[in-house]
Design goal:
about 475 residues, alpha/beta, seven-stranded mixed β-sheet, six-stranded antiparallel β-sheet, about 25% strand, globular
Length: about 475
């Protein structure tokens, strides 16, 4: 293990939680409230720092994805401490009822329970995050929408709303760690999970402190809450490299992101445009459009939301989109194919710089851009593995292979076309499709790493059971986005 040093004394707890991000903090809070002693291990410190972030570096192939150390945050609070979240807030909305269904047009979809099962937990989660429950937000949002919003909906679309929550969950961490039942150990990185003679119980969590000394946490139960990439990496590294929970070669498979891309521009009548503008953020609420569930079933489409935002027309032009694509593609691996066309568009914009500058300063017209955010189909070839590189402790880094399918692209385009049909049918305008999903359009992820320890009642189809327990283990659980079987 490279620089790993001598052993320190054992640490004893009822439960060891690995990762002090949103999932780990929530699990710790719930357990401590029930009188359970928790040892909470966090690789980062109280604040985000560049040196610690280097520990999240990794490898990637497949489709270009955000640099791994730019998507994950090692600090108490986890990715809620990401600079974009801290500055702009994060958007939340409950999963829809259809997300839990086994959809015959979406192979390997479905959860082992329905949306109603989670309703009481959604209410508690909203209180923990310091926000209203979703139904109250939705009613408030729809009350203030102008009548012209009907031009964007028709019979196939409906409005929905996202909430920008507070950072109450992170800000309350100090009260949590003041509890005598909670032992927070920052800058402590887990390097192994050891099992007992039966192979069905984790009997030790091996970690390395900031001083390089090793410690062993012994607990009755262990919870991994380190995100969609790191949960899989830790399971693959566990038991001295033999791996845990991977009897059916499922750990790390079904990696997914939420697909984001600019789909086109809306050309609307003044009344419809005013309605579209009303979808913008107000008082922490951000509106969007979604396909009604019966439409998804009839057309065999993936779930998604369509976001309409006003942008300076210079940013919606070919040159502006190319400059944006080049900026987003910077540092990604592998490189996006056909980058040359974007470079050409960007170079062509140089001669127009004075005019572009005037327009960018606010004297230009504004264009309504439609952004798509949607799910991709479960895909076992999209996965997290152990890479060939090593971190500073000599451990293999994560290697992410993000793969989307042709069906993902077809469903995304068809969903946007539903909006175009609704607008045309109302006589309010039309949509100009500008994306080229097969070549030059860069699909970005939302830093939502999902699916790598998917939940299923059948151990041959999932890593964890409906209680988030690793199927082959009696006392090992996984919390967070990696358990999502659909996205």
């Amino acid at each position: 293990m490279g620089s790993v040093g001598a052993w320190t004394a054992n640490v004893l707890a009822d439960v060891c939680v690995v990762g002090a991000g949103p999932a780990g903090l929530t699990v710790t809070r719930e357990l401590a409230a029930r009188g359970v002693a928790v040892c909470l291990l966090e690789a980062g410190g109280e604040d985000v720092d560049r040196r610690t972030q280097r520990q999240s570096r990794g490898e990637s192939d497949g489709y270009p994805i955000h640099r791994l150390d730019h998507s994950r945050v090692r600090a108490v609070g986890g990715t809620l401490r990401h600079h974009r979240v801290a500055e702009q807030g994060w958007m939340s909305r409950p999963l829809d009822p259809i997300d839990f269904e086994a959809r015959d047009w979406l192979p390997e979809s479905g959860w082992p329970f329905d949306r109603a099962h989670l309703e009481p937990y959604y209410e508690r989660a909203a209180a923990l995050c310091g926000i209203p429950v979703y139904d109250d937000d939705l009613q408030e949002f729809r009350r203030r929408l102008p009548a012209g919003i009907g031009a964007l909906q028709g019979e196939e679309l409906e409005t929905t709303v996202f909430r920008q929550p507070t950072l109450a969950l992170v800000e309350g961490r100090r009260d949590l760690t003041a509890s005598p039942l909670v032992q927070l150990m920052p800058r402590t990185r887990v390097v192994d999970l050891t099992t007992d003679g039966t192979g069905r119980r984790v009997d030790g969590v091996v970690a390395v402190g900031a001083d390089g000394r090793r410690l062993l946490v012994r607990a009755r139960a262990v919870v991994l809450a380190t995100g969609g990439i790191e949960n899989a990496r830790l399971l693959l590294l566990a038991d001295g490299g033999a791996g845990i929970g991977n009897e059916h070669d499922l750990v790390g498979r079904y990696f997914a992101e939420r697909m984001l891309f600019p789909a086109g521009v809306l050309l609307l009548s003044p009344e419809a445009r005013a309605a579209a503008d009303a979808l913008g953020p107000v008082d922490g609420l951000i509106g969007a459009l979604r396909l009604r569930e019966e439409v998804q079933r009839d057309l065999g489409l993936h779930n998604c939301t369509l976001h309409v935002a006003s942008r300076l027309d210079v940013m919606a032009s070919a040159s502006g989109q190319s400059i944006s694509t080049l900026r987003k593609a910077w540092g990604r691996r592998p490189l996006l194919p056909h980058l040359g066309s974007h470079v050409g568009n960007a170079v062509a914009a140089v001669g127009q710089a004075p005019g572009l500058a005037r327009r960018a300063l606010g004297r230009g017209r504004r264009t309504l851009v439609v952004g798509h955010m949607g799910e991709q189909a479960p895909n076992p070839e999209s996965r997290v593995r152990l890479g060939t590189g090593r971190d500073d402790l000599g451990m293999p880094v994560a290697r992410v292979t993000w793969q989307m399918t042709e069906a993902d692209g077809r469903a995304a385009e068809a969903s946007v076309r539903v909006l175009d049909r609704a607008v045309r049918a109302s006589g309010a305008g039309h949509l100009e499709w500008t994306a080229r999903l097969d070549s030059t359009t860069l699909v970005t992820g939302a830093h939502h790493h999902l699916g790598t320890t998917r939940m299923h009642a059948d151990p041959r189809q999932g890593v964890v059971d409906p209680d988030s327990r690793v199927h082959s283990m009696d006392n090992l659980y996984v919390a967070g986005s990696s358990v999502f079987p659909t996205y």
